[in-house]
Amino acid sequence: MQIRRDKYNLTKSHTIEITEKDIDVKADINLYSNANEINIGASISGKIVDTLNMPIKNAIVKLIDSNLEPLTYVRTDTNGKYVINFIPPSNMYKILATATGKILNHSNSFSLQNGENKIINFTLSNDSNALFGAINGILTNNEYAIIKGAVIYLYRINN
Fold first, then answer.
1. The total number of structural domains that make up the chain
2. Which of 126, 139, 142, 152 yields a CA-CA distance of 20 to 30 A from 1?
3. Mean pLDDT of the chain
4. What is the DSSP string of 27-93?
C-alpha cells in the first residue's frame, strides 16, 4: 500500500449562491501547506463493501475533526481496504466514506489515544440519484447565524 502525505491541507470553499441557470460563479480557494503534526501514533483501518458484501475499489475515506473540518483522506484498494496512518491531533474524529454511485456513510464520533489502532468498516448502499461529486459547508441565515439540523438539496435546473 502506498503511503503519502498531502502537500496541502484539505479545505472548503466560501459560501456560493447560485440564483439562476447558466450563471458563472468564481470560487477562489486558498490552500495552506500541510504543517500538521502528522502522526499521533495511531491508525484507522477498515473495509468498504456494498450491500452484497463486495469490496468497493477507490472509495474515498475522509477523516474529519469535531468541527467537521477535513484532516486527511485515503482511497480504498482493490479489496476495499483502507489505512489512515497520518492522523493530526484532535479531540474527536469522524470518518466519512463514499464512492461513485453510492450513498455517503459516516461513523459515530470517536476519540483516539496515542498508539491506538481503530477498525471502522462501512457498507455503502446504491444511490440511483448520485452524481459524481460532494458538497460541504456551513448553512447560515441572512444574518450569518448557523442553521443546525437543516436538510439541503441540490437541484439541476434544466431548460
1. 1
2. 126
3. 79
4. ------B--S--B-S-EEEEEEEETTS-B-TT-EEEEEETT--EEEEEE--TTSEEEE--B---S-E
DSSP label at 14? P
Give residue for cell 468498516: 121
Residue that has been written with the C-alpha cell 455517503 in this structure: 104
CA distances from 118 to 64, 79, 85, 94 (A): 15, 19, 11, 12
Q: What is the DSSP letter of 95?
A: E
**Pairing between β-strand 81-84 and β-strand 105-106 as defined by DSSP bridges:** unpaired
Letter for the amino acid at 27? Answer: A
pLDDT digits (tens, 9 = 90+) for 54-112: 999 999 999 998 888 888 889 999 999 999 988 888 889 999 999 988 989 999 999 99
- Which residues form the domain of 142? 1-159
pLDDT per position as a tens digit, 124-148: 999 876 555 556 677 777 777 777 7
Q: State the cell numbers at 70.
A: 477535513
Which CATH number belongs to the domain containing residue 103 in this structure? 2.60.40.1120
